[in-house]
Design brief:
With about 300 residues, this protein is of the alpha/beta class. The protein has 12 helices and 5 strands. Helix 3 crosses helix 5. The protein is elongated, with a radius of gyration of 31 Å.
Length: about 300
């Protein structure tokens, strides 16, 4: 992708932004975005590309549909935006990449927003008040973020593990981790499926590390360029299949018409009968019948 990020944030009129790749939003999650922006403001600008027209510049959205629609819902006329240089195809691909990434990592992003608020100067008490979370929970999340415990954070957000257990696992060595799981079981904090899920998570954390990596096995990240290349390769493969199918169809048509003409010859039928070849597959008979109908 050839986009270059802008060096400053511009205030862009909301009414001049077009969403190229709109998606249906979950009403509950959208309401959370609106309420969050209403309480603490926009935490991250949207990204757009400028489109020059006769009656003034317009903009195509690269990423940030939820934030843009929340501003519209709140009646705002302008929104902070990074303006990049990108064509329409780049914008569509970037939107696709963002959607995929959010579907896979949304729960983790939500908790990492707490870390982003701290970096912008908010105290634990401020974050707790603005998010509606307890100070103890916010402090524990920041502690896990500082330790890079993405797997544990994901389990906490998904409700698979209490944050108190996650903290004990993060602070413990290998024997201590097993002891933390045992204490959680004895105190009814982890039972049944949650206990099994916690054991699997601990094993994955031991083998693969604390961070949640991409599911790709080659260690590379998904970019707009790689998505375009994959799309082009798939398109070329399907075109090749179509060409092969057309060749096969033409050859079958030739064979069918040739057989139809041969079977119309009495001498040919006598030869087949002398060899005991009096029957043919029903599919072939049907094809020959259709050819004879077209000729007649």
């Amino acid at each position: 992708m050839s986009a270059r990020p802008a060096q400053r944030v511009e205030m862009v009129p909301v009414e001049r932004i077009t969403i190229l790749n709109p998606r249906i939003r979950n009403p509950r999650l959208f309401r959370e975005i609106v309420d969050s922006i209403a309480r603490i403001g926009l935490k991250r600008p949207i990204t757009v590309t400028r489109r020059a027209e006769a009656d003034g510049p317009f903009y195509d959205l690269v990423c940030g549909q939820g934030r843009l629609e929340a501003f519209r819902e709140l009646g705002e006329t302008e929104i902070p935006a990074l303006v990049v240089n990108a064509d329409m195809e780049d914008c569509l691909v970037a939107s696709l990449v963002e959607n995929c990434a959010r579907r896979q990592h949304r729960s983790l992003d939500l908790l990492q927003d707490i870390g982003g608020m701290r970096q912008r100067g908010h105290t634990v008490a401020d974050i707790a008040r603005q998010t509606g979370l307890s100070g103890e929970f916010v402090g524990a999340v920041l502690r896990l973020l500082d330790k890079g415990e993405q797997r544990l954070l994901q389990a906490v957000e998904a409700g698979q593990m209490p944050i108190s257990v996650a903290i004990k696992i993060a602070d413990a060595d290998e024997p201590g981790v097993q002891l933390a799981l045992q204490h959680a079981y004895e105190n009814n904090l982890l039972r049944g499926r949650k206990l099994l899920a916690a054991k699997r998570l601990v094993e994955q954390r031991k083998r693969r590390g604390k961070h949640v990596r991409s599911s790709r096995t080659d260690g590379t990240t998904v970019s707009s360029a790689s998505l375009l290349n994959a799309y082009q390769e798939e398109t070329d493969r399907k075109r090749l299949l179509v060409r092969r199918a057309e060749v096969a169809k033409s050859r079958l048509t030739f064979v069918t018409e040739a057989l139809s003409k041969l079977f119309a010859e009495r001498a040919m039928m006598e030869i087949l009968e002398s060899e005991g070849l009096r029957d043919m597959p029903q599919e072939l008979r049907d094809c020959l019948s259709s050819v004879e109908e077209r000729v007649s």
